[in-house]
Every structure is written in structure tokens, then in C-alpha cells.
Amino acid sequence: MPASSTTSQAAPAEGLKVNIDDSGAFKRQASSFRDTISDEPGAKFPPEKGRYHLYVSYGCPWAHRTLLVRALKGLEDVISLDSTHWFLDERGWQFKDQYKDSLYGVPYLKELYLKADPMYEGRVTVPVLWDKKTETIVNNESAEIIRILNTAFDKFIPNKASLNLYPQHLQVEIDSVNEWVYETVNNGVYKAGFATSQTAYDDAVYPLFQSLDRLEAMLSKSDYLVGNTLTEADIRLWTTIIRFDPVYHGHFKCNIKSIEKDYPNILKLARRIYQMPKVAETVDILYIKKGYYGSQVRVNPTGIYAAGNGPNLMQPKI
Which secondary structure element, helix H or strand E, spans residue 242, and what is its range? Predict the structure, then answer.
């Protein structure tokens, strides 16, 4: 989906509250902080090594996009990182145990939102791109953060600057793929999982698998979704796909087919990206399962998480 979209591509906020309309359908709300990082003269947030910090949850597919781009672009020494704890309670994303806020030591992410804006009453979501210098949020929209990370810091990473996940000549096609993949797959699993009526569930789950069938056909002819090269379209799909069998198939009732058994070309893409340098380090399947099964008590009241981890992404080698 184009970064200018007003629909948030971030993890739900304020604990377990989910926005459901009168028909029982899940409705994702908009992100609030939409600044960028730019080398333009007078820019509010210029690129500087060590100035910016990324807050994520390893369980959240939207935040995982930013983790993945940070790894692929080799930005670990440019942008620091903290993850919240996997458990999301009624007070929102929290820091505890080994998951600490290294900048301020706050127990909840909400406190950083209030530090950025003491009057803030909106959603508290991950990812968050934080400016250490002015102590505020630059952006909390994953679709925009991955584009910031894609080019804004290239002068600090000469060995990775050539990797462009949103090249100009492919942007129209990338945006087109992003739009329907977001609506029916990335957000489609949530619409199916959070539905509170049979109609809302049916309206989400069948288009989801129609889109997976479409993606499978596309990937039968090409290694990647657009231009036969790695782009953000693949990144945005991938973070949903690796969660599909271990979480969405059961937890969100997306069980018409599975990635491992029914989508060999999608699985090959998942393995191809997972096997790239540093990517596996961004994946913690146990954390992911605990986050979904343990936090979303309306969907899974017992908090018991499923045993299966999904397909082996390290083997066979691609």
C-alpha cells in the first residue's frame, strides 16, 4: 500500500482493544506521527548516525518489516533498537524482563508517546522511529519507516547503498501489488481473526486465499513479486507469510490451506529471504506465538500457544 495511505500498518494499540464495526468487521485505524528523515536543507530530521532509535515488537509483522529492512541494509550501527516484551496487556506494549527500554527505562511504550506529545490520546503502536536528539517520535507508520530506512542513511552504509527496495522504475508496480496484498493478506488475516460475525469472517477469509493463490501463480514465474528482484513488496508479504502456519492458520482460523503444504512458490520466497544474511536473527517464532496466543485473549481465552513452528525456513537451501 502506498506510504501516503491513511490506514495504519502497525500493531494494534492500547492492549487488547480492537476496533470492530457494527457488522463485526475489524477496522484498522490511522497512524499519527508521519514525519520523515531527509537531507533536504532545513529538514526537521536530517540523517545522522546514532541519532535515531527503533522500537519494535518481534511478534508484530508491521514492526518486523522495519527490522528486516534494517538488517538487509546493514543499519545496525546506524540505528539502535529495542523490542518490547511479547505480552501485550490492557495498558499496551510493555518493557520487562530482558526486553528493556535502553533510552529511558520506562515500563510502557505509552510513556514515550506521552513524552513526544503530553496531550496524546491516540493509538500506541509499534514500530516507532524515535529521535534521541529532540526526544520525539519521527514516525510510527511501518510503510513509511521502511522507505526511510531504504535510502535516508545510504551515505553511512556504502557497501549496502546499492540495495534499493523501492527503485523508481518499479514504484508504480510495487504500489499496485502492495495495495491488494495489504488489504487482503497483511490485514486480511487480522480481519478474519478479529471478526465477530460469520459474515465478516467470510468476507475476509475467502479473499485472503484468493490472493494467496494469485501470489503463488506470480511466484511460479518469478523469484520475486516485482521485476524479478527483491523489493519492499516481498518484504511486506514475507512478514505475514512466516507467521501464517504457526499462528494465522489456527489462531485466526485461516485454515483453508497452509503455506507449507499448498503454496510451494510462496514457501520458496519465504526461505529465500530467510536465508539472506542477518534475516534469521530478526525471527523469534516462540516470541511470535506467545505474543499472539498469549495476548489476544478474546481470540484465545486460555492463552495456550500451539506447538507447531511452521515450515523449516533454513532447509532446503535456496
Answer: helix 232-243
124 in Cβ contact with 9 (< 8 Å): no
Residue 22, pLDDT score: 81
Helical pair 171-181 and 232-243, crossing angle rounded to 10 deg:
20
- Work out the pLDDT band at 23, boundaries 50, 70, 90: confident
- State which H helix or E strand residue 129 sits in: strand 128-131
pLDDT exceeds 90 at position 8: no
Q: What is the mean pLDDT of residues 106-131?
A: 96
Q: How far is CA 305 from CA 75, 97, 212, 235, 309, in A?
A: 33, 20, 25, 26, 10
Cβ atoms < 10 Å from Cβ of 6 = 9
pTM score = 0.91
Q: Residue 16 pLDDT > 60, yes or no?
A: no
Task: Supply the residues annotated as catalytic.
Answer: 60, 190
Is the distance from CB of 259 to CB of 244 less than 8 angstroms? yes
Average pLDDT over residues 143-161: 97
Write the single-letter amino acid at 277.
Answer: P
pLDDT given for residue 19 in this prediction: 76
Q: Which residues lie closer than 8 Å to 151 by C-beta, 6 or more apart?
A: 164, 166
Q: How far apart are the first and last CA of the chain?
A: 28
Q: Which residues contact 39 (CB under 8 A, 6 or more apart)?
A: 46, 47, 152
* Number of other CB atoms surrounding residue 68 within 10 Å: 25
Q: Stretch 36-58: mean pLDDT, rounded?
A: 97
Instruction: Quickly tell me which residue has 527500554 as its cell.
Output: 101
Coil vs helix vs strand at 181: helix
Which of helix, strand or coil describes residue 64?
Answer: helix
